[in-house]
Specification:
The protein has 273 residues and is an all-alpha fold. It has 10 helices and 2 strands; from the N terminus they run αααααββααααα. The two termini are 20 Å apart. 30% of the residues are buried.
């Protein structure tokens, strides 16, 4: 009887989404530094005030970067909560639940993030009334919601894939032991699937963190917007690449360790066949 060849194991192929992104970030960091050095060389000797200007604006840029991190954490939390529910809905027995949830997931997974941001900014109201209390919705809150939508779609697919990766025989074994479907899911399937969900979830968070710079396009003051404002205030073209290089290095220093940790977890939780 011919056996169907199994696909290569995870550890044999590696994950391009992690190691390629890490190497690309390294190359981008070095390229930024090279461009910065070239720009400064073309502008002549370093003027005495250039380094002081960088130090002067560094706290403002760092505070903007901290805001980007807050946006990424909140958007990831909202997207994970909603995505987990959608992911479980995709494996429901009822087609009335599976069908609509699948459509929602596919829509938000394949929609451009910037377009979703624009829709969140333009369609959500400026304020909502809850139990007679008026709650304002500033642009930053709308931006978080706009970023949480594609995260929701991707997390839903991560959850669905993680649950489906567990052999169906475990469902049958649990059923033979009189476990309900909910007991099987929560006590047997999810504890195993969770380990396989963590690496892609972390990789998605790194992607989300880098994508938070999109909120500057819709008028939210983040690290990119503050860097642009600092350059306009100084009016010195030779600071263009160093200032943006500083911003790139900040994101690299935060996201690259996550990518490395993700790769380590992928090797650790790889399915051994």
């Amino acid at each position: 009887m011919n056996q169907v060849p199994l696909p290569p194991r995870l550890g044999e192929l590696g994950q391009p989404s992690t190691w390629m992104s890490g190497r690309l970030l390294v190359l981008l960091a070095f390229a930024s530094l090279a461009f910065a050095a070239s720009a400064l060389a073309q502008a002549g000797p370093l003027r005495p005030g250039a380094a002081e200007v960088m130090l002067k604006w560094a706290p403002l840029i760092l505070s903007g970067f901290a805001f980007n991190l807050v946006v990424s954490i909140v958007a990831m939390a909202l997207g994970t909560a909603a995505g987990a529910l959608l992911g479980l809905a995709q494996i429901a027995r009822s087609r009335l639940i599976r069908g609509p949830s699948w459509l929602v997931v596919q829509f938000f997974r394949n929609a451009p993030w910037l377009v979703l941001l624009f829709y969140a900014i333009l369609l959500l109201p400026y304020q909502v009334t809850v139990f007679g209390l008026t709650v304002p919705l500033p642009a930053s809150v709308k931006a978080v919601i706009g970023l949480a939508l594609p995260v929701m779609g991707n997390v839903a697919e991560i959850v669905r894939g993680g649950v489906r990766s567990i052999p169906y025989g475990q469902w049958e074994s649990a059923e033979s032991l009189a476990f309900s479907r909910w007991q099987t899911l929560t006590m047997i399937i999810l504890p195993q699937a969770l380990k396989r969900m963590i690496p892609p979830w972390m990789n998605l968070y790194a992607v989300l963190t880098m994508a938070t710079t999109l909120i500057s396009v819709v008028g939210v003051e983040d690290a990119l917007a503050r860097t642009r404002a600092a350059l306009i205030a100084e009016g010195r073209s030779e600071l263009l690449m160093p200032m943006y290089g500083l911003l790139l290095i900040l994101f690299f220093a935060y996201c690259y360790p996550i990518a490395r940790w993700t790769r380590a977890l992928e090797r650790r939780f790889a399915v051994k066949t």
